């Protein structure tokens, strides 16, 4: 049996995955929640899928199915927002990672594509602490795109960057005629106290009206390339650290 071509994902047969014997697995974590008036509730998952598909086409990595319902209780009260608790997501991710470990894969990438999934960091830390044979790294593929966007922002929710990304990935899902610019007078920390719909009228943080598909394509490609480098370089550095023990 010949080794299957990239990408390696759940569309492959069990025999194909066994023949490929991947050393690294990639678990994307998205979200299902409101993204203002103009973007689909699947925005974070769409972006995560696109970036992880790009990664899996560039390196031999087992691209697991994306977890699409995660920590979105900060959007409660907005139709289409669905969530689980931090405890549930933590347990789910750990169970998935350990099932992959059972198949002999010892290097795991957790790709987080939703800013509200704060729990994934301690989950990665716990897995590395509790299982000496595992190396779990957290991928949150942010790169400098200030040269691409007209209004670069550290707060990302339904603004220029996310709007541009979905315009590049699935333009038929974007309703640009409904996009409204908005910058609530609150930082992200206020989501600890109140749902997003209480912080701003349009549930947006930025200037979505400036979004374009071309900006999205440029930024997504940059994020994919940066993600591949990060994965390769991080595992190489960790291997060196562990070999020095």
What features would you highlight for this structure?
245 residues, alpha/beta, 6 helices, 5 strands
Total domains:
1
The helix content, as a percent range, equals: 25-40%
Low-confidence stretches are none
How many strand segments?
5
N-to-C SSE string, H for helix and E for strand: EHEHEHEHEHH
Q: DSSP strand (E) fraction?
A: 5-15%
Classified in CATH, the superfamily is Creatininase
Number of helices: 6
CA radius of gyration is 19 Å
* Reported CATH architecture: 3-Layer(aba) Sandwich
The order of strands across the largest sheet is: 1-3-2-4-5
Structural class: alpha/beta
CATH topology name = Rossmann fold
**Any idea what the shape is?**
globular
Query: The biggest beta sheet, please?
Result: 5 strands, parallel
What is the typical, i.e. mean, pLDDT?
A: 94
CATH class, anyone? Answer: Alpha Beta
Cα separation of the termini: 39 Å
SSE map:
Blueprint lengths: L7 E2 L4 H7 L3 E6 L13 H16 L3 E2 L22 H17 L4 E6 L7 H11 L4 E5 L20 H10 L43 H31 L2
Parallel strand pairs: 1-3, 2-3, 2-4, 4-5
């Amino acid at each position: 049996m010949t080794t299957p071509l990239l990408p390696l994902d759940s569309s492959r047969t069990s025999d194909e995955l066994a023949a490929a014997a991947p050393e690294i697995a990639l678990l994307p974590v998205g979200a299902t929640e409101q993204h203002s008036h103009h973007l689909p509730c699947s925005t974070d998952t769409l972006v995560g899928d696109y970036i992880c598909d790009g990664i899996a086409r560039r390196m031999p990595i087992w691209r697991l199915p994306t977890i699409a319902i995660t920590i979105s209780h900060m959007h409660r009260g907005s139709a289409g927002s669905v969530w689980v608790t931090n405890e549930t997501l933590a347990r789910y991710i750990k169970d998935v990672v350990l099932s992959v470990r059972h198949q002999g894969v010892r290097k795991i990438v957790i790709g987080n594509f939703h800013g509200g999934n704060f729990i994934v960091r301690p989950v990665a830390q716990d897995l590395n602490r509790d299982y000496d044979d595992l190396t779990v790294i957290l991928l949150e593929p942010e790169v400098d795109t200030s040269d691409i966007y007209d209004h670069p922002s550290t707060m990302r929710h339904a603004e220029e960057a996310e709007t541009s990304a979905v315009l590049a990935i699935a333009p038929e899902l974007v309703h640009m005629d409904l996009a409204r610019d908005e910058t609530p007078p609150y930082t992200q920390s206020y989501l600890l106290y109140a749902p997003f719909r209480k912080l701003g009228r349009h549930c947006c943080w930025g200037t979505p009206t400036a979004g374009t598909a071309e900006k999205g394509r440029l930024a997504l490609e940059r994020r994919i390339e940066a993600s591949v480098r990060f994965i390769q370089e991080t595992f190489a550095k960790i291997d060196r650290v562990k070999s020095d023990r």
